[in-house]
Amino acid sequence: MHRSIATVCLSGSLEDKLYACADAGFDGVEIFEPDLVVNDRSPEEIRALADRLGLSLDLYQPFRDFEGVTPDLLEENLRRARERFTTMRRLGIGTVLVCSNVGTATVGSDQVAAEQLRRLGDLAASFGIRVAYEALAWGRYVDDYRRSWRIAQLADHEAVGVCLDSFHILSRGHDPAGIEDIPGEKILFVQLADAPDLSMDVLSWSRHHRLFPGEGVWDLGRFVTHLVRAGYTGPLSLEVFNDVFRQTDTVRTAEHALRSLVWLEDRAARLLADDGGAAAHGGAADGGGRASLHRIADVDVPSGYDYVEIKAEDTSGVEVLLDQLGLTFRGQHRTKPVRLWSSGDARIVLNEQHARDLDPHLAGIGFGVADASVAGDRARALAVRAAPRRTQDGEQDLAGFVAPSGLEVFLNDRRDRTQDGEEPAWATEFDRGRTGGAGEITGIDHVNVSHGWDAHDEAVLFYTSVLGLEKPTATEAAGPQGLVRSQVMRTPSGAVRLSLNVAPVGVSHPEHIALACTDVVAVARRARERGLRPVPVPDNYYDDLRARFGLDEATLTLLREHQLMFDRSATGEFWHFYTPRVGRVCFEVVQRVGGYDVYAGDNTPVLLAAQDRLDRGTR
Amino acid sequence: MHRSIATVCLSGSLEDKLYACADAGFDGVEIFEPDLVVNDRSPEEIRALADRLGLSLDLYQPFRDFEGVTPDLLEENLRRARERFTTMRRLGIGTVLVCSNVGTATVGSDQVAAEQLRRLGDLAASFGIRVAYEALAWGRYVDDYRRSWRIAQLADHEAVGVCLDSFHILSRGHDPAGIEDIPGEKILFVQLADAPDLSMDVLSWSRHHRLFPGEGVWDLGRFVTHLVRAGYTGPLSLEVFNDVFRQTDTVRTAEHALRSLVWLEDRAARLLADDGGAAAHGGAADGGGRASLHRIADVDVPSGYDYVEIKAEDTSGVEVLLDQLGLTFRGQHRTKPVRLWSSGDARIVLNEQHARDLDPHLAGIGFGVADASVAGDRARALAVRAAPRRTQDGEQDLAGFVAPSGLEVFLNDRRDRTQDGEEPAWATEFDRGRTGGAGEITGIDHVNVSHGWDAHDEAVLFYTSVLGLEKPTATEAAGPQGLVRSQVMRTPSGAVRLSLNVAPVGVSHPEHIALACTDVVAVARRARERGLRPVPVPDNYYDDLRARFGLDEATLTLLREHQLMFDRSATGEFWHFYTPRVGRVCFEVVQRVGGYDVYAGDNTPVLLAAQDRLDRGTR
């Protein structure tokens, strides 16, 4: 379908926005009136620029407070409309968004609203313009798309139809299936936004907290299927008012926005196919005059972690920790200053290439997928930027991509690995190491990624759309420098778990790699014998455990002796400890007992406070 | 009254918080349990530190999910309580906060809750502890303070009373006057928080958006009068969960918090006096066994601006602008590199003292007050830091204070100025200038102050408590780099108006001084003759004015010729233009016509976009 976006979604000047939308691959834009008003280019210049960039100008919006008014106000509103239509003619825009009246409506009659919209339709038609009437969720009388459609039917004018906005429909909990009762040709425009599950007044929710499709809680794929069944073939346009996106880089946000539309079309196409509809493949329209939905390569949900990469000018401090934790040095890469450590299925790659002046930090994650070429095709279709990786003859070619935080994500083929525990082919590129004795550490339990407040929603969409991760829970933990927000992302099986963390502004939050093990006490004991001092846990914490869980003294003594933290859920227990940081990275060693399947969120403040004491050198 | 604060209000470690609270002048603190759990000092050490600092430990909180449960759960809850009471004894804390059950209550009977609280009271009494039972706004069965009091009455136990929290009472819209029906000795603790007028779920509102008294929308002074009438004499304690305060400097936030309590006590004392009660003065308790409320010097609401000060290493660029706008150079200060320009009541002080490497920026505002010594006493009582000002013999001694953004605020006596338009005495310290011809510019209309997101609430409280400004409206304007939030502060008469602006993170937002005039067209014409190029206004803006207001072509031509902006309200019109920035400062020239008494908020995005074009050198 035709991919469009409202200019209000992006930061910058109107020209910045047009360039970014064209570069990202949008087909058209909605002109948000205030973006034009503050701009010093004439409407003719804007139109010419859009023409040169190959962008259609799909909609002019918003025109407010028109219908349901007294006769004298109607004349004033028609005068206003004439002025706007004149501007639209200069821009060459053929559709205007008319929102249901919020401020000046005094007549609640559908008949009156319809008559007034018919007057507007006459005026619009004389300019070659169509009126897309939209029910705002907070309209004075009209706040339901079914009522706006009823009024549009009553208006019975060739130039009058409706605009449907997923936010205004889904925020009110209205069933979008009713869209199928509207003839497609009377749906003149469609605006899409997702949203988080917030309980606040709908106006604030709408103006500040909308999200791109795939980032919130609504099933917009299903929403689009109703549009297709209604016979709608016009633009799918993003209208996302979001305080963060308004101030992030224009180009980056435009790419992010387009990715959400590509993902959404694919998802809707799959739902239609599942429903038995003939969904289009590869961009071709199906036979029944339906909209063509572009479908991309299947999602290939990772079956596990292949490796985690830490990069620094000097990674030897990390090697000390890995040795203390019982991992084995497996060798140096044949052609690069890159070293591999492992234990069981936990592989840590230490990269000193092109790392001058860099402190140890999380630089990449390799995921095992069933078919790397399909997974790579999907990532490319979602316009994810490729991460360069030099290979030489005889080395495995891995498909790498850059995640929003700058983290490099590699999708590595597991087709050739038939047995559990078999190592990936690329591991043979490392030599002069020791044979991997599998110790207590068996794999990577989860990885804790940290990024700025402005990259969070983009990161959620990346892992959702590219890797098919789910986003079950968002939490927050209080640290000495403020609240840290976390979004857990995971595969349905739990084989891959990521925690996406947003630190308070101006505070760097550590990344960590959590290693799964079968006996955390044994790992902790050996690590201390080898000189590790784990992150110290206060005695007050153990008193708290006693109060919360009624642990016996023997258990508390064991926990305290090894500076372990503890949690219990209805289904099991969680035992874990943390190493101090080297650079920005630390390790956590975790043991899940029974069916414990979450994270020890209540322990995070203990970690944050302890790290703060270590950073400040206070005891 | 005894001034206390919950440790959760502040950032940092528990020790950081104790030091900051003591330094700020608090009498005691509430220990927020998680602050203890993450801390590596023993309870005995915390108690000893608090003793040394002269802080009482007034409350241990929170103990959750106790009452209204099944018998077996009750036993487990009593076990938990015993553990916490043991910790409290080590801390030497005599009161525990028990919140109404949210998670595990299954019995809605007041009788059962009371019996269970009586059991808890017995246990607590054996530790010498009192139980302060609080109705959370989102309690499962108990969410109203009148019900928690009824249950406490039924419990009928010496060690059981209630805790009252203004948030839980006022957020639900419950009438606080009912507090007076509770015997003061059964109110075991009081927690105070203000809040902004947000429409969101009460839990999120409570956990993230509370404010210190005086910063939100509630009349907490009135709230305190009910407590006094009930005979409550215990601590007034701040419990403010706020994401911003959690990450701002601990010391600064503690001072800010104490200021809110000082202001609140004074306000409550005045309300009691107005009500005919015998409010205490100067900290003495009144005769009736009532709590003593400390009253401070009267607020002296400024009658106008004395001057605005711009500081820089080189202020000559500002002088060019002032000359273009028709202000007169009035002279150089006799002893300092400071120059005065004026027109009518608009006085701009240009300060080059100790300004090496500084770009022009807003450094100070002088306000005219009726009695500077009273106004200064009030500021000092509110623990505002003094701004140093060197004076020599024969120069006026001005009382200066530092506002949260670093701006210096001077309170200048107007007692000696009997006539309107008479100049302040300090103006005579400037010589070798020209005589002030009063041009079209008559005074300072408003000043636009900019500060970081973390200083905003503190700034609101400063201007409210020290100067008695009101905070009528908060707005936001979209700029190319994000939303700019503004809070207008003003005196009732409008003689002093300030706009407090918060720019998007990482973006510097200009400060500006708005000069009032009687003929903006004349000012603009002369300024252009003298070489000023005002901030350019797009033609699209004038098209928008035509559409919105139906302005005639002659008016539009006049506006466009002088690059003026325009607004119209129900009561009048607003004509204005902006100069380009010099350093961080620009000037606005405004003419208010008729009863126009607001700001042209819709024009701010036009200014922001134009300044962005000037900054980037794009046309």
What oligomeric state do the depicted chains represent? homodimer
| Main sheet: strand order of chain A | 1-2-3-4-5-6-7-8
By CATH's scheme, which homologous superfamily of the largest domain in chain A applies?
2,3-Dihydroxybiphenyl 1,2-Dioxygenase, domain 1
Could you give the distance between the termini of chain A? Answer: 61 Å
Total number of domains of chain A:
2
Task: Write down the Rg of chain A.
Answer: 28 Å
Please give the largest β-sheet of chain A.
8 strands, parallel, barrel
Low-pLDDT runs of 5+ residues of chain A are: 278-287
State the CATH architecture of the largest domain in chain A. Roll
Q: What is the CATH third-level topology name of the largest domain in chain A? A: 2,3-Dihydroxybiphenyl 1,2-Dioxygenase, domain 1
For the secondary structure, the number of strands of chain A is 24
Q: Strand-residue fraction of chain A?
A: 15-25%
| Silhouette of chain A | elongated
Q: For this structure, what is the CATH class of the largest domain in chain A? A: Alpha Beta
Protein name (chains A, B): 3-dehydroshikimate dehydratase
EC number (chains A, B): 4.2.1.118
Family (chains A, B): Belongs to the bacterial two-domain DSD family.
Pathway (chains A, B): Aromatic compound metabolism; 3,4-dihydroxybenzoate biosynthesis
